[in-house]
Write a structure and sequence with these properties.
Strand content: under 5%
Helix content: over 70%
Shape: globular
Distance between the termini: 15 Å
Radius of gyration: 17 Å
Number of strands: 0
Oligomer: single chain
Largest sheet: none
Number of helices: 6
Length: 156
């Protein structure tokens, strides 16, 4: 019996066969993930929640994302948590070292990365998977991660 995550990864892979499109996805999927984390991080926290300085809107969003991956594959969830930690590190690095507001930079990069994604799919000749099911927006990072896991012999 095929696990749901395996079926989703297989289906996602069907519209990602072209080597150029795959290469574009290796750049753009992590970039888009980072920009979304940065944009959510940038949402102002209401006064009522400012008494908890560690609170940020990214926290509850990431809980949901990690739960999605945990349900799909706890091994992939671990990889996503590591990637999320790298994203948060990148966000804090940006905020400390650059003056352009994070949300502005992230929004610009988000648009450029999506242009790249659509260009890759134009080369592929197939529509992005998320047009069929929005769930595939979360499968993209797992699809890349499963290649890394296979390369290092990690079961997922």
């Amino acid at each position: 019996m095929t696990r749901k995550i395996d079926a989703l990864l297989l289906e996602y892979g069907e519209s990602h066969q072209n080597p150029t499109n795959k290469a574009v996805h290796w750049i753009c999927v992590p970039t888009i993930f980072w920009t979304i984390t940065a944009l959510v991080w940038s949402i102002p926290v209401p006064q009522a929640l400012q008494s908890m300085p560690e609170f940020n809107w990214l926290m509850p969003v990431l809980v949901g994302v990690v739960l999605y991956y945990l349900i799909s594959s706890w091994q992939l969830a671990i990889g996503i948590v590591v990637f999320v930690a790298a994203c948060v590190w990148g966000i804090t690095f940006y905020e400390v070292n650059f003056t352009l507001p994070l949300w502005q930079f992230a929004l610009g990069v988000f648009v450029i990365a999506w242009i790249g994604q659509f260009w890759g799919h134009k080369i592929e000749g197939k529509k992005p998977s998320f047009f069929k099911d929005v769930q595939f927006l979360l499968i993209g990072p797992a699809w890349l991660l499963h290649f890394l896991y296979k390369r290092f012999g990690i079961r997922y």
